[in-house]
Amino acid sequence: MDKPSAQARAPSSPLALLTPKETPLLAGPGSGSGGIGSGSGSNSNGKIHIPLARYATWIEDNQLKRYAPWLVILVTGLVRWCVGFGPYSGYATPPRFGDYEAQRHWMELTLHRPVREWYCGNLINPEWYAWKTSRGYESAEAKEFMRISVLVFELVVYTSSVVVFTRRWLVNKAWIRQHTLLLLILLQPGLILIDHGHFQYNAVMLGLTVWAVNCFLADQDVLGSVFFCLALSFKQMALYYSPAVFGYLLGKSLRLGVIGCLWKLIKLGVTVVATLGIMFAPWLQSKDDILQVAQRIFPVFRGLYEDKVANIWCALNVAIKLRDLFDIQTLVRFSTLATLAAFLPSCIALIARPTKRGLIYGLANSSLSFFLLSFQVHEKSILLPALPVTLLIVDEPVVAPWFVSLACFSMYPLLYREGLAMPYLAMVGLWIWLTAGLCTRRVSSTVKWLAVVAHVGLAGLQLAEWVAPTPLPRYPDLYAVLNAVLSAGGFTAYWVYFNWRQIIWLPSARALSSSTTSSGSRRQMLHQQQQVKTKTA
Amino acid sequence: MKKKGDSKAFHSTDFEVHRNWLAITHSLPISKWYIEDTSEWTLDYPPFFAWFEKLLSFFGAMVDPAMVQVDNLEHASTATVYFQRSTVIVSELVLFWALQRMLAVMGNRPLQKLINWSLFLNPGLLMVDNMHFQYNGFLYGILIHSLVDAKQGKLLRSGILFAVLLNFKHIFLYIAPSYFVFLLRAYCFENSENSIRARSWISAFRPTRLIILGLSVVAVFALSLGPFVAMHQIPQLVTRLFPFKRGLTHSYWAANLWALYSFVDRLLILVASKTPLGKLWNLSVDPSALSATTRGLVGDTAFGVLPAVTAQHTLMVTVALMLPSLVVLFRRPTFDRFVGSLTLSAFASFLAGWHVHEKAILLVTVVMSVALANKVGTSPNAGAGAGALARENGQQQMLSQRDVRAFLIVSLAGYVGLWPLFFTRAETPIKVGITVAWFVLVAGGLEQCTPRQANGVGASPSIAAGSRSVLRQLTVLEQMYVVGFVPVQAYVLAVHGWVFGEDRMAFLPLMITSVYCAAGVVYGWLLYSYAFMESGMQADKPKSKKKTR
């Protein structure tokens, strides 16, 4: 749908992509190029040789910047709408249906029932609501309405937050760079496929999280924690991020001296309690209600993991049948402890050095820890680590796009089941094409080859599945298991990498630049970052 | 390349048309191809296209054997949809290849790149091919290959390619006159720098070339039509290919002269039946017309007040509209004039032809894009001054503002004229979105490529960077027209259904779209003709002066 999408509007052929020979086009900043200069990302000399960057350069050269935001909305919206043409989760598959039916049913429930009863029925499994005559209601118009609602909420919450993020993250950088980052983040395939294909409202939660990050970037910590609590109360998954947010805020407070620290902690504590209190006010009147809500939100009874998910438990399950060996209580405790152990290093590092860059890495690390080790994880939860990784895409030009591809790959069985293989192929292909150019000449060829081999290997696996769906009758789930194991291995490697990046690499680079304090004004922060880059470059 | 997103859209009648053709060519012998009529969508493209379908059907049969059964009407399994959609995308690689060649030949400058992208991601092509379902990208790819050959001076190859193209889809007959004149004049006569004087025509004539060209074209046609000549099926084939009984206008009016004509007729009917003016002017209304035309049915068109139009009339008007450009081309057969005259031929056929499809506007805009790409533009980085012209090749003409204005107006009007093809609400965001995005980007890009004259339209270099309007290069009237699309289409897409409901007065939005777009197309045609003729006159003037001395 063309797509019709922004990638190809870059004024050059896709063939010229991998060999960045058209430097003259990029080298001449147009008349509107504001700021200090287009330099200083952590890759090379700040030029990004990808189609989107060319598109942004072209826009600037042609003085079309005033139209650029509308074009972004138009194009990214179109991509999402095209994906939305596909079937949704549980399309025409009674009796359980899927997420679409769940969301539709929640709308009906919240419309018709009093607030206090919302969590009394079973919100998770619509099967128990047999008395609802409208169950499984499907029509083209209802689908359109639901799709539009996702689109609108995403636009209002997520897109706006990303726009602000690119401005604050790349403050004083060239507009081209900011715009490229914006387009890349908005065209991240995982979120599009799940929200607009599978059907969920993840973008709202993620958007609220990005708003929180925006506030943290501007040192508006109280407002930031309000946003984060809103994200939490929109979807409890945001809990995956909480260690990083907690560590960052605590670390920042600790640097303010005793009085300042106490005052700040009180401020933040009151904010959090008040926000959550307001959100959950209707159910705080009786103990039963609280328990009921808690049980609903954290459905421990549903087992260690669902289906085939690319986390460590599911991968281990190939060799050790954990679920048969231990009872559910032990597993809950065990997985909680493991999660705690996994995110602690990153959290402690954040408390020790609460930098803004560290915060994003911390978000990635803590959410990855949860994804890999916590109880009852869905394959869709990979979207949570994918968000901070996508935000870091200009800073981690090799690793981040690769992570996103892997994340999509890990969700492939789900998408395939729901008839979304075609949008999956289109979106991931688009993503790989868009980001391939981020591997500049400075990246070592070993890494490049590794990336190529990994991509080709995964593509080969999918091709094999397509050609021979069940090669071994004894193992009907062969491909799904392979997928889960490979992805889990990959994610574990990423966990190690990002932890190394956050705990060892960031401080060491800063140590070189011989600056000590980390919290402080944005300008100071920026100064540090630039020093870091000049050192590493 | 990644237009797959669109391919998820609903399938239209043309999807079933092409599925049926796959089935016909796969399971029936050649002798039955143009006789078979199980489906109402009979094979009505020339034989090469039928062979193309046969080639596809081999793969199609592998994917889903049910697809290629003739009596399996309205078959649209998921595999079939994916297969057919992917054939369109793959076949558009021909267009991609052609555009790469064009970029290499025309020069790799910002203007050419812009035109390239504008062609490749053309909303018209996207809508007609990937949403509606046709193979236009493939066919226009062949056309552009032929044009690139002509530009390179490989005239014979260009001619053969065009003959092949004609046997793929006979809609390219619209521009055949220009091809004929150009090849005759440029290939079959020896051309020096200046045009040949009348008395040396005989000595400049190269009969061997004429014979070579003629033989190759005849060979192509023999290859295509030969089997049917042998089977005495040519009359049958002609009735299939040229369905003159189908009526003057298509199911809804294409945005051409006849749309305006029918609109005037409708107005006159209203005047004659509802006001005393009818008697005053002695208008008589043909009662059979009252219920016929605008109801969106394929059928014969009847006019209430104005005289009826026959196929002969349309042919005469078309030829009359074409002739001036052909004369200009004949006097001096340069490539510039060739593409210009191709555009005008396509215009003439679109505006005045019999039973023109709204999709035929693509022919106009594609050829016009090539004509623009053939010119020299300024580089966007060179600043706004008039001195920064990137004139690299003295033989090429500068891009003129008239060309750009005509191009923008015609494209916009033409593509909006395609919108009624996609009538479901889910498709509305796509058709609106791609058209608007295309217009903003191309208008903005062309604005930078157009050299500015000192007294040019709205030119003022003091406007702050980054705050230019993409409409700046248009005149006030044109700006009003473009902006006017917003309320008009808002009414057509939303307000009408809201006021009248889904079914009542269904012809009104269609009529409004057709007439409004027709106005734009006619205006753009006038503007472009004027620019073409003017540049033709200027180029011919110095020579005629020399002659008189």
Keywords:
heterodimer; A: about 525 residues; mainly alpha; 23 helices; about 65% helix; B: about 550 residues; 3 domains; 21 helices; about 60% helix; globular; disordered N terminus; disordered C terminus
Structure write-up:
Chain B: One of its GO terms (molecular function) is dolichyl pyrophosphate Glc1Man9GlcNAc2 alpha-1,3-glucosyltransferase activity. Chain B: Pathway: Protein modification; protein glycosylation. Chain B: One of its GO terms (biological process) is protein N-linked glycosylation. Chain A is an all-alpha fold and 537 residues long. Chain A has one domain. Chain A contains 23 helices and no strands. The model of chain A is unreliable at 1-45, 120-135 and 511-523 (pLDDT under 50). Chain B has 549 residues and is mainly alpha-helical. Chain B folds into three domains: 1-91, no CATH class; 92-243 and 311-548, no CATH class; 244-295, no CATH class. Chain B has helices at 13-27, 47-63, 78-91, 93-106, 110-120, 123-132, 136-152, 155-168, 176-187, 201-204, 207-230, 234-241, 257-274, 277-280, 311-331, 335-352, 361-373, 401-418, 428-449, 476-500, 507-548.
